[in-house]
Amino acid sequence: MIKLHDKYFKPFISAQEIETAIERLAKEIHNDIGEEIPVFVGVLNGSFMVVSDFVKKYPKPCEVTFIKLASYEGVKSTEDIQRLIGLTQDLKGRTVVILEDIIDTGNTLAEIHRIFKNEQVKALKIATLFYKPTAYKKDFKLHYVGIEIPNKFIVGYGLDYDGLGRNLPEVYQIKETQHMTNLVLFGPPGAGKGTQANFLKEKYNLVHISTGDVFRFNIKNETALGMLAKSYMDKGELVPDQVTIDMLNAEVEKNADANGFIFDGFPRTNAQAEALDILMDAKDSEISAMVALEVEDDVLVNRLLERGKTSGRADDSNESVIRNRITEYYKKTAILKDYYSTQNKYFGVDGVGSIEDITERLSKVIDTL
Asked: Is 193 a catalytic residue?
């Protein structure tokens, strides 16, 4: 992830993918033009990298010139095209290939065709490294396209955001959601995870998504996902990960404007963690951290036995059952601890002390994210 001015951008197209696309464009254009010496025209400022790398790949002699047009303000393409530098050579009877870095709305193409209308060129062809088909509004033919991309703002490889980012060798895509804190909250039975989740969601204005609550809501309200989950549960089978992910996705969609989420009870396996990463990436976000409350087993057992005196829960009153639950928790958590540790996203927090003290410890971690 990178930050330019006030915006965040995530990796999108690698330098290797760009090189491959340019090599293909050079071959396609040469195959069409043959032994004729073409004139390649770069459209500044963005195309300087494209033109530089393209002519290195072009296998035969060629000429290069530039025109400079301006149509971007911030992250938006405008209708107002300004010609800042025009042509300085005679192109009559020549084959001209326009080398664009990116074509989205196609507004600059109208000005390009107007520029070349009176030049009496033999042929005018348009080549672009990046193309946004869903944004294109014109009828001009695009003869050569390197990579089709969605209609999202990108920077890098000559493309900029208010002057920054042109120097990057790869391309980054803007993150629609600029700031989100997404936590996977873990803690063994009796660690006080529920209590801390309530404090954290209030303090950081986060949405608490408890997998258990989500399942109960969907089943009680007989949603399509709830009925599907129940069909597996009634047969004593595990609910497939995708069903759970679809439920979580629905909860995230309901709270699209949230500052972030606390995921409680999910993920439980590497596969689920990977699925959650994919889900968050689709929302232009990511898991910020796995935060686990750490409490010694004997303390947990005493807490749960004490809670069992008033909770009415049978699994809070049997010490062997409690210890088995704690053992199961560590088995599952150990896998996820490794998963998030490799991403430098695992944080263990001492879960012993007053509620306020534990909240303060958790806050210190979250404030660094």
From this structure: yes
Higher per-residue confidence, 356 vs 178: 356
Distance CA 334, CA 269 (A): 10
Summarised one tens digit per residue, pLDDT across range 232-257 is: 999 988 899 999 999 999 999 898 78
From 117, 216, 254, 313, active-site residue: 313
Tally Cβ neighbours within 10 Å of residue 41.
24
Question: Is the backbone peptide bond immediately before 221 cis, with ω within 30 degrees of 0?
Answer: no
Phi/psi of residue 103, each to 5°? -125, 120
* Pairwise CA distance, residues 44 & 69, whole Å: 6
Residue 307 designated active-site: yes
Residue 325: active-site member: yes
Contact 187, 178 (CB under 8 A): no
Backbone angles phi, psi at 52, to 5 degrees: -60, -50
Among the options 166, 307, 323, 361, which is catalytic? 307
- From the list 83, 268, 283, 323, the catalytic residue is 268
**pLDDT-based confidence at residue 69 (cuts at 50, 70, 90):** confident
Tokens at residue 156, please? 């890098």
For residue 194, give the nearest of 332, 324, 293 by alpha carbon: 293
What percent of the chain stands above pLDDT 90? 70
Q: Which two tokens stand for residue 175?
A: 């993150």
